[in-house]
From TrEMBL, chain A:
Transmembrane feature ranges: none
UniProt name for this protein: NEDD8-activating enzyme E1 catalytic subunit
GO cellular component: cytoplasm; nucleus
One Pfam family it belongs to: ThiF
EC code(s) of this entry: 6.2.1.64
InterPro entries in the cross-refs: E2-binding, ThiF/MoeB/HesA, ThiF_NAD_FAD-bd, Ub_act_enz_dom_a_sf, Uba3_N, Ubiquitin-activating_enz, UBQ-activ_enz_E1_Cys_AS
Top EC class for this record: ligase
Residue ranges constituting the E2 binding domain according to the UniProt record: 344-427
Domain of life: Eukaryota
Active site residues of this protein: 210 (glycyl thioester intermediate)
Single Gene Ontology BP annotation: protein neddylation
Organism: Agrocybe pediades
Automatic annotation (TrEMBL), chain B:
Source organism (scientific name): Agrocybe pediades
GO molecular-function terms, A-Z: NEDD8 activating enzyme activity
Start-end of Basic and acidic residues biased regions: 108-130
Spans through the membrane: none
Protein name: NEDD8-activating enzyme E1 regulatory subunit
Domain THIF-type NAD/FAD binding fold span(s) in chain numbering: 133-248
GO cellular component terms, A-Z: cytoplasm
Annotated region (Disordered), positions in chain: 92-130
Gene3D superfamilies assigned: NAD(P)-binding Rossmann-like Domain (3.40.50.720), Ubiquitin-activating enzyme E1, inactive adenylation domain, subdomain 2 (3.40.50.12550)
Protein transport is among the record's keywords: no
Length: 428, 629
């Protein structure tokens, strides 16, 4: 059986299309490009590539990589298949609902594209250590969460050892929303990283709690009331499962009743689900565009057959086809790749508690529940409970009593794989 | 005995059949002359047979939490035993309503008619089709989905690019697709097309193989392989092509493409043609259509609130409020719309009827807003200051919409004109004859700092007025138009789109247009000319000879299109070099990217939502950029 597979693997003509760009350089190809067998051998027999996410982008990425000749592909995804994935995640069928995405996607690719090995891991990226990530030449991310991207980005930046060029792993990141999307190439420590561009993200819509509790005006306010206030009141510590139709049904009913009470129109099942799950519209075509752009960069980086993207491609398909390709600049005060501390000017009377609020609000940091310390002492820790209790007293103190002007403060959070260094000064 | 209480509604037998599947199986299977005749359910294409173990795993969770096993003391609810023969009596009192009035649980079905209530879709958990399409319904809603589901798409050739396009159309659920392809799968096809099964597909019909594998993506889509050549169809059955909703052609031979595009241009009612060309890292997408109208363009900007021209009820309400003696809490909850209407009216009284216009005036106006605060933290007044621009931004009809009014199809209306033109004509009259000279008011109010009562009250005033203006608008309509369409039209009347396209090849036949494109879009034109030169060169070759043009040959082809004395753009060598490097390469990544771009455009064309391209979209995957020509 094994010999049969290998015989059929690279049939004559298999790479007829790809080989046209690998046999000859183009007018804009780097002079260092070594056309011919060397580059084909590297692509097909040596390159090892990691795909993060086997969802909307991931399915597309895996198929493209397999067809372009990558033979050793690994994929990580912690999710299982849901029926709402089937309008775009084309490696999955109704019979696969409930199964792990990574496993089903890997099996499908291996069945469809002979000779390609896809190694799935059904779990979290955080389960893997540096040694694991070091084995790959390239990482492509097709993720749907900011947090996972930040983790992956910081991990790859931290992995860079200036003594060892092999430790620098290019990260290609894609993302989509409706008819819009972006693809970018990150060369850790060399180009702008994911963290550098955090302020480009849209601020998530947050409704003030007093609006939700006292003066609802929109159907969304009623839904938030049901999920943020009523659920914990009625169910206590029981965790809400936004994938459970019964939970959504309950929230919908409660929200609809509140809306009726306040004469607010527009609470529907679909809106309820959209608000509590923070659903982002997604279609196959946009994913195809962004995944193709990502894989094209992976192919160009792996083969040098053409210059790769420097470094950001943004596409908007709502009004014609509009795209913008530009170089996103590295930030010197980027907490991940910048090396410089973030300058922060506070009022002398700002308390530790107020500083925490400022940090949580800050768009270019996006941190939840930060813990604070200086190089010599602990200021406030969110956990463990004993430490929280021991440091709680500092919340009311002024920062200026604890940190001298020009002093350093270190911010950490469980959601971040790095610590943020602040240089504190005081407005006079 | 009748049971008006509803509590004795019971079921001795229930089945979970999809009525359509069952009816089809009865009508079309169970046929003595085919394998289903002897009761082989597996042979019936309308049934999917699962094994018993799998089937027993399939459970539905109860909607009502109640005891369903064993002997029960009484039936659920407020339901004493009643004997006949007279009708049962409906019990009254707390908890005795058999038919819940709050829309909860079992109240979604009207027991008297067995039919779902009208708003059932909104009230209960969505069905499996809605769940499957949830992420796209949030973009184009049920109306867009139904347009997709009734569309029929013809794709010419089963290349990697063609199947990539179709994949992104089959997944969201088009009605039907046909692949027209007379060729057999080659080893080269098997290497770059995901909708072929590697070596095992080699030698089989490319249309049949790709249709089969694309079909697996969505049971709700009908796929058909047509093994004729395009030439054969154009020679003897060209009417057939006009029956599709849209036609897509990838890397078609230039002569055939010309014949096809000429045919589809002949009649305005013929389908649009999407021309897709690619070679290596370069590609082009063009849509040939006479005209494309869009009501639901999904604009980023909302309609004007018309604060500068408040409707009478709004003005009266704003002027009637006693801010001075208002309760402090209420004062901090007056919506900014009311604040601005009031202050503008007062301003105009002392400024000969004009709104603030100069910079100092605007600053002064803003100061009067903040001066109204009773407490420093009244957020509604801060919001009013931030929104003050609405006072001096006139709610005029946008220029692009006024241009629409002058369109010949709008000015010379006939009863058979499409509804879009009737609606625009009515809009033109409305804006001309109504005293405000604005677009009809819409009831969509953004969120603002206010308490529930004042916000809902304002919303109601807008809604009422919007209804009145809608009635006036409708009175200008010369033909009846579907009410949902009128609603969508008014809501989007600031962002309507009328696109007029050109026949494929118009640019290449117009040396002056080419010369001017050299100035305006040299990069895009270079890629376009390189692809045109390649197609022209290929057409002149003997069929079945390898295509390997030189740079000189293609440059000469491109140069021959330009007026004498005009040079090719400086970017041309870079483009033509790529085309010469990979003249027949349908690269998987280029194919996938084109698959996405073309599918997006086709979806926009079919749903008539969002705005499709008008012209050529040029794609360069070396720079990773796109641009319009």
């Amino acid at each position: 059986m094994a010999t049969q597979v290998s015989e059929t693997q690279d049939w004559p003509g298999r790479y007829y299309h790809i080989d046209q760009v690998l046999n000859t350089p183009g007018p804009r190809t780097d002079p260092d490009f070594l056309a011919g067998d060397g580059v084909k051998n590297f692509l097909r027999n040596q390159a090892k590539i990691l795909v993060i996410g086997a969802g909307g982008l991931g399915c597309e990425i895996l198929a493209n990589l397999a067809l372009t000749g990558f033979k050793d592909i690994h994929v990580i995804d912690m999710d299982t298949i849901d029926i709402s994935n089937l309008n775009r995640q084309f490696l999955f069928r109704p019979k696969d609902v409930g199964k792990p995405k990574a496993t089903v996607a890997a099996e499908f690719i291996m069945k469809r594209v002979p000779g390609v090995t896809v190694t799935p891991y059904f779990g979290k990226i955080q389960d893997k250590d540096e040694d694991y990530y070091l084995q790959f030449n390239l990482v492509i991310c097709g993720l749907d969460s900011v947090e996972a991207r930040r983790w992956m980005n910081a991990t790859l930046v931290n992995m860079v050892d200036p003594e060892n060029p092999e430790s620098l792993k290019p990260m290609i990141d894609g993302g989509t929303e409706g008819f819009k999307g972006q693809a970018r190439v990150i060369l850790p420590t060399i180009t702008s990283c994911y963290e550098c561009s955090l302020d480009m993200l849209n601020k998530p819509t947050a409704f003030p709690i007093c609006t939700i509790a006292n003066t609802p005006r929109l159907p969304e306010h009623c839904i938030e009331w049901a999920s943020v206030l009523e659920w914990p009141r009625v169910y206590g510590d029981k965790k809400m499962d936004t994938d459970d139709p019964e939970h959504i049904g309950w929230l919908y009913k409660v929200a609809a009743a509140r809306a009726a009470e306040f004469k607010i129109e527009g609470v529907t099942w679909s809106l309820t689900q959209g608000v509590v799950k923070n659903i982002i519209p997604a279609i196959a075509s946009t994913n195809a565009i962004i995944a193709a752009a990502c894989c094209n960069e992976a192919f160009k980086i792996a083969t040098s057959s053409a210059a790769y993207l420097n470094n950001y491609f943004m596409l908007i398909g709502t009004d014609g086809v509009y795209s913008y390709t530009f170089e996103h600049e590295k930030r010197d005060d980027c907490p991940v790749c910048g090396g410089q501390a973030l300058e922060m000017t506070l009022k002398p009377e700002t308390t530790v508690e107020q500083l925490i609020e400022i940090l949580v609000e800050k768009q270019d940091i996006q941190i939840k529940k930060p813990s604070l310390s200086t190089p010599t002492k602990q200021i406030y820790f969110q956990a463990p409970p004993q430490l929280e209790k021991a440091t709680r007293g500092n919340l009311e103190k002024k920062v200026s009593e604890l940190v001298p002007p020009g002093g350093e403060m270190i911010v950490t959070a469980t959601t971040l794989p790095f610590s943020l260094s602040l240089r504190i000064s005081y407005a006079t | 005995m009748r049971d008006p209480t509803g509590f004795s509604w019971h079921a001795d037998f229930q089945n979970g059949w999809d009525t359509e599947a069952l009816q089809n199986a009865i009508d079309k299977c169970n046929n003595p002359s085919d394998p289903t005749g002897s009761g082989i359910t597996e042979a019936c294409s309308f049934l999917t047979v699962s094994n018993a173990t799998a089937a027993s795993q399939c459970k539905i969770s109860p909607q009502v939490d109640e005891v369903i096993d064993g002997q029960m003391g009484k039936l659920p609810g407020c339901n004493p035993l009643q004997t006949g023969p007279q009708d049962a009596i409906v019990q009254s009192g707390q908890g005795c309503s058999a038919i819940p009035s709050d829309g909860s649980e079992s109240g979604d079905y009207d027991r008297n008619s067995d039919r779902p209530k009208v708003d059932q879709l909104d009230r209960s958990a969505p069905d499996s089709k809605t769940r499957r399409y949830d992420r796209q319904l949030r973009l184009w809603a049920a109306s867009g989905q139904s347009a997709l589901e009734s569309s029929r798409i013809l794709v010419i050739s089963g290349t990697a690019t063609s199947t990539s396009i179709l994949k992104n159309l089959v997944l969201p659920g088009i009605g039907h697709f046909t692949i027209l392809d007379s060729l057999k799968v080659t080893p080269e096809d098997a290497g770059n097309n995901f909708f072929l099964e590697g070596p095992s597909s080699i030698g089989k019909s490319r249309a049949e193989e790709t249709v089969r594998l694309l079909g697996e993506l969505n049971d709700g889509v009908e796929g058909k392989a047509d093994l004729r050549s395009l030439k054969e169809v154009l020679d003897s059955d060209k009417e057939w092509i006009s029956e599709f909703t849209i036609v897509i052609a990838h890397n078609l031979e230039a002569g055939l493409l010309e014949r096809l595009s000429t045919l589809l241009w002949e009649d305005e009612s013929y389908p649009p043609l999407v021309v897709v060309r690619s070679a290596g890292f370069l590609a082009e997408v063009y849509i040939q259509y006479h005209e494309h109208t869009v009501i639901e363009s999904h604009p980023e900007t909302a309609q004007s609130l018309q604060i500068d021209k408040p409707f009478p009820a709004l003005l009266e309400y704003a002027m009637g409020l006693d801010f001075e003696n208002m309760d402090v809490t209420d004062h901090g909850h007056v919506p900014y719309v009311i604040v601005l209407v009031r202050l503008l009216e007062e301003w105009k009284k002392t400024h000969s009827g004009s709104p603030p216009s100069t910079y100092p005036e605007k600053q002064e106006f803003k100061k009067t807003i903040l001066a109204m605060r009773k407490k420093a933290d009244e957020e509604n007044f801060e919001e009013a200051e931030a929104q003050a621009y609405r006072v001096w931004t006139p709610s005029n009809v946008p220029l692009e919409i006024r241009d629409l009014f002058k369109d010949p199809k709008v000015t010379s209306l006939s009863p058979s004109s499409p509804p879009f033109f009737h609606l625009v004509n009515a809009l033109a009259k409305f804006t001309e004859e109504q005293p405000s000279h604005t677009l009809p008011l819409t009831s969509t109010l953004p969120d603002m700092k206010a308490n529930t009562e004042s916000y809902i009250h304002l919303q109601k005033m807008y809604k009422k007025r919007a209804e009145e203006e809608k009635a006036i608008f409708k009175s200008y309509l010369q033909v009846p138009v579907d009410n949902d369409m009128v609603d969508a039209f008014i809501k989007n009347s600031h962002a309507l789109k009328l696109l007029r396209g050109k026949k494929w090849g118009t640019l290449d036949a117009d040396p002056q247009a080419l010369a001017s494109a050299i100035e305006t879009s040299p990069k895009q034109l270079s890629a376009h000319l390189a692809l045109t030169a390649l197609a022209a060169f290929a057409s002149k070759q003997q069929p079945n000879t390898p295509l390997s043009p030189t740079e000189e040959e293609l440059t000469a082809e491109a140069q021959s299109l330009l007026p004498s004395g005009v040079d090719l753009p400086d970017d041309f060598p870079a483009a033509v070099g790529e085309v010469v490097r990979s003249p027949t390469a349908d690269l998987p990544n280029t194919a996938a990217l084109l698959g996405g771009i073309v599918a997006q455009e086709v979806i926009k064309m079919i749903t008539k939502q969002y705005i499709p391209i008008n012209g050529s979209c040029i794609i360069d995957l070396i720079e990773t950029s796109t641009g319009m020509l």
